[in-house]
Structures are given as C-alpha cells and as structure tokens.
Amino acid sequence: MDLISRQPTVEWAGVTDSRRMLARAERVDAGFTGRPGVLGRDFAEPVYPVFARRARGARVWDVDGNEYLDFILGFGSVVLGHADPRVESAVKSELADGLARSLHTPTQLRLAELLVETAPGAEMVSLHRTGSDATAVAVRLARAATGRAHVLRWGYNGWHEWCAPRTNGLVPGAADHVETFVYNDIAGLRRRVAEIGDALACVVMMPYEIEEPAPGYLAAVAELTRSRGALFILDEVRSGFRIAPGGAQEHFGVRADLVAYSKAMGNGYAVSAVAGRRDIMVHSRRISSSSTFYRSSDAMAAAVATIDVVRTGETSAVLWELGRRLQAGIAAAAADCRIPARPIGLAPTPWLEFHYEDDGINQVASQAFYATTLREGLLLHPSHHWFVCEAMRERDIDQAVAAIHAGFSAAAAAVRQL
After folding, report:
1. DSSP letters for 105-160
2. What's the pLDDT at 7?
3. Between β-strands 258-261 and 231-236, what pairing exists: parallel, antiparallel or unpaired?
4. Residues 36, 41: Cα–Cα separation, whole Å
5. pLDDT (tens digit, 9 = 90+) per residue, 269-320?
6. Rounded CA gap, 207 and 255, in Å?
7. In this structure, are 57 and 89 located in the same domain?
8. Co-location of 65 and 122 in the same domain
9. Helix, strand or coil, per DSSP, at residue 89
10. Which of 99, 174, 282, 392 fits a disulfide with 161 by CB distance 3.0 to 4.6 angstroms?
11. Which of 312, 345, 378 is at the close of a domain?
C-alpha cells in the first residue's frame, strides 16, 4: 500500500463550538481550571476537541461535527466499542426496573459470581464505583488482614490520599507509610522489603504501563512480598478484561492475593471491583467502604454483559491482532519517513516514542505529529498510551497508519526547519 498517496480521511473543520463551550465551562466548572478538556495544555495548536457530541463503535464526533477514530477510548474504559449494542441492551433492560431499588439486586449477585468465575484465584469480591475506590479498598483490606501499615507501590494507583500524585490539600503525614519503588528492579525492591521487614502490609502495583515486565519479574515480586507475610496486590484497572479475559494474571502467569478491576470491566460504565482470597476479603466487614451508589445496577448490568462477551468471545485476541497490525504499520511508516520513532508497549495498549538525541527536537516532532494526525481524523493522546477496541476493523487500523505516516512526514519536515 502506498501510504504517502493516501488522502486525509476526514476534513478538518476546526473546533469553533468547542472553543465557545470551553469558555463557558471555564467560568463554572472547576474541573476546567488550568486544564481544557482531557488533554491538558500540552499542545497549543491545533486546539484538541473538548466536547463530544456522540460516540459509536470506534468513533467519536465532537460538537463541531468532526469525526475521529478514537484511540483514547475513555482512557481505556471502552473495550468493545462505544455504545456497544450488547451492553446498551442490558443496561436499558436494567433501567426499566428502576435504578435505586433500595435493596440488593440479582444483577449484583450475578456480577459477583461472574467475577469469581473469571478472575484467576478469586474466591470473593466486593463491588465499587471507580478504579481509585478499588485500589484504596484493596490497600485497606491488606492493612486490616495483616495488622501492618507500610505500603510499597508502583504505577498510577488513583487519587485517594494514600497515593495522590499531588500533595496539595492532603493532611500532613497522609502517605507517611507509603512509598514507591522502581519497576523491573527486583534487586532494589528486595533490599527495600528487607529494610521494612515485618511492617510491610502489601506491595501494590500495575502489572505494566508501557514497559513490559521482565521475564519472571511479577512472579518474583509476588514471592518476595509473601515471604515477608505481606500481600501482593495487582492494580488491573487498565489491564483487566483487556489483555486477556483473566487480565495480567492470565497473560503473565502470576497470581495476586488481591486484584483491583475497573475501566474495561464495564465498557465505559462506572464500576469497579476488588477480587481475592476469601480469608482476606472477609475483612471487608472490618473496614469502612460504602457508598449510596455502589448498588446502582445499571453499571453492574453493563459489567455483566461486557465480561460475558470478553470471556466467551474473541475480544482479547482481536485486540492483540489489531494492536500488532497498528504497531507494524507504525514501524513501517517511521522507516519510510526515515524518522527515529518506534511503537512500544503491549499491542492492546500501544504507544509511540520519538528518539531524537535532543528532547527539544523530540518535542517539536511530537507537536507536528499530533497536530497532523488530529487533522487526519485520529484521536491519540500525546502523553498517555493508546487503546484499541473490538469494534475496530483492519480498515480502521490502515486508516490510522496512513494518518500516522502523514504525521511522521510532518514531524520530519518540522525537524528539518530547525
């Protein structure tokens, strides 16, 4: 395929209405303070779209009518595709019986059973609303079960006090018993675990973000943690129900004591869960963890439908196949444009790195690349890994590769002008 001759797949119509709505939002919505939309201020031109009018399948339309092939996918919460009819049908059926029914629902029970059937090693679960809820509950359970306080963590684990990336507004000492460690450095972790000793309650970590775990690394972390009587917790908020039906535990052949799930679990609906061993999960009655809306069964119905599709169908296989096709196309386009860039990460959650010798040149190339791919109709995040979904087809990936080729050409031209 001659990628250079491919024309843009959509016409860039600008973001006029999006700009107007942004001005309104900045007056009344504190979430927009210093951050216009989900992409922040990293890229000044073109202005990234802020408000979406609708989404279906693998595509999003903004309020100005621009159409995008979506590789952000609700930051990974959409795994089947936007407004997937199997999920939407289940939600509509659930809503017809009333949402806040005061009591527990059969849907809640079915979801709990389904999670125990699907999550490797799970004997009991507790259901929550967000990924941050799930990781916070998992850590609280670990502390209750072990009677210890210290936590070692890696990755983005949420925004609650124990792991908040920004310390403004936190009570002094809120994270005194929490510290981070270096990924893929088992020797460094071993030294720190030995220093902490019997005070260690748990090690909680994402199985990966962009860099893959070294062979045997996750199993070594699990073994090291348990050798000190602490609990090994996997934060599978991003990886769960995406890289395999059983998530990173299944894909990497590792077992955790507790696992936190969210995002792809509900195909865009707000739902999360902690799954784990019975002897740990029974401590749920001893910790504070409640919300009026944990029992909202619309999201639970979405999760049941999504997990049913993922565990009985070919969702994960499709994501791997599409992701590999995308990564191969990225590599070929970079070589054709003679630009030092390469695809990285696991295929279902790919990303791109530029490798000029100077960080400033990398920034110039990145600016040109994302400006061009946006005008070509791709919604890519400049500073967060991307996602593919089951609704994508090979032709969508080919469209993306053509746009990425145009982005590399623009990046090369921008660098030559320096």
Report:
1. -HHHHHHHHHHHHHSTT-SEEEEESSHHHHHHHHHHHHHHHH---EEEEES---SS
2. 33
3. parallel
4. 7
5. 999 999 999 999 999 998 988 777 777 899 999 999 999 999 999 999 999 9
6. 11
7. no
8. no
9. helix
10. 174
11. 312
CA distance 188 to 111: 39
Please measure the distance between the N-terminal and C-terminal CA atoms of the chain and give it in whole angstroms. 31
Structurally, the chain folds into a number of domains equal to 2
Q: At what angle do helices 297-312 and 85-95 cross, to 10 degrees?
A: 150
Q: Which residues, at least 6 apart from 21, have a Cβ–Cβ distance to it below 8 Å?
A: 50, 51, 63
What CATH code is carried by the domain that includes residue 110?
Answer: 3.40.640.10
pLDDT in tens, 329-363: 999 999 999 999 999 999 999 999 999 999 999 99
Name the one residue in this structure whose structure tokens are 């395999």. 244
Alpha-helix runs per DSSP H in 315-384? 315-337, 359-375
Query: Where in 35-180 does DSSP place strands (E)?
Result: 52-56, 59-62, 67-70, 124-128, 150-154, 178-180
Q: What tokens were used for 5?
A: 């001759």
Distance CA 336, CA 257 (A): 47
Q: Considering 281, 312, 343, which residue would you say is the last residue of a domain?
A: 312
If asked whether residues 280 and 328 sit together in one domain, one would say no
Angle, in degrees to the nearest 10, between helices 315-337 and 297-312: 80
The most confident of the ranges 19-28, 173-182, 392-401 is 392-401
Pairing of strands 52-56, 272-276: unpaired
Can you tell me whether residue 231 is helix, strand or coil? strand
DSSP bridge pairs for 152: 179, 203
Domain range enclosing 191? 85-312
Residue 273 host element (H or E): strand 272-276
Q: Tell me the pLDDT tens digit for each residue of 35-91.
A: 666 665 555 444 678 889 999 999 999 998 999 999 999 999 999 999 999 999 999
